[in-house]
C-alpha cells in the first residue's frame, strides 16, 4: 500500500518536494484564525484517512501529525500502545515549554495534556503512560527529565526496544538518527544511533505483525539530499 503523505509542518503547508515520497496526499483546507482549530482540522483529516486504511504508513513534516494517526487507529476500533522513536522527549506542556514549539508537546498531548485543545475536539482517547515506550530521547529539557523521572512511560534504546502486547502505533521522528548520518534536520542531535541501527530496530518492530500504523515525521530543512529519499523508500 502506498503511504499517506501529509505535506505539513504543524499548520503550514510544506514546499513541493519537501517529502520525497509519493502516495495518498492528505492536505485539507484549513480554517483561518485559531491555530489549534487549524491543527485539529488537519489531524481529523489524517485520522479519517488512517481509519480507512490497513496498517498504513503516514509520512509528514512533524510529530504532531501522529495525533491524527493515533486517533485514526482508534476510530478503526483498535486500542494501541505507542512506540515513540525520537531524539527528543516531546513531553512538554504549554506551561513547561520554554521555546513555545508545539512539536515538543506531541507525546504529552497524546497522553491527555490540554484535552480541551486536542483530545476533546479530535475525539482522541488519551493513552495511559504505561502504554507508551519512548525510544532514545537523548536530548531532554529539564522539565521533561523531571516529568519522566516519575512517569510510568517506559524508556528504551533503539537496540533494546520490546514490543508491548497487542497492537501498536509506531512513531518515528527521523531526528532520532544521529545528526551526522542525516544532515539538514531542524533539530539535530549528535550522539545517536546510526540510520542503519534505526532502520533495523523499526524492521524488528514491523516484523511482529502488530503495527497498526507507522507514523514517520520528517522535520528537516528544505533540500534534496538523496539520503532523505533513500530513508523514506526504506520505510515505505
Automatic annotation (TrEMBL):
<keyword id="KW-0378">Hydrolase</keyword>
<keyword id="KW-0479">Metal-binding</keyword>
<dbReference type="InterPro" id="IPR023696">
    <property type="entry name" value="Ureohydrolase_dom_sf"/>
</dbReference>
<keyword id="KW-0464">Manganese</keyword>
<dbReference type="Pfam" id="PF00491">
    <property type="entry name" value="Arginase"/>
</dbReference>
<protein>
    <submittedName>
        <fullName>Arginase family protein</fullName>
    </submittedName>
</protein>
<dbReference type="InterPro" id="IPR006035">
    <property type="entry name" value="Ureohydrolase"/>
</dbReference>
<comment type="similarity">
    <text>Belongs to the arginase family.</text>
</comment>
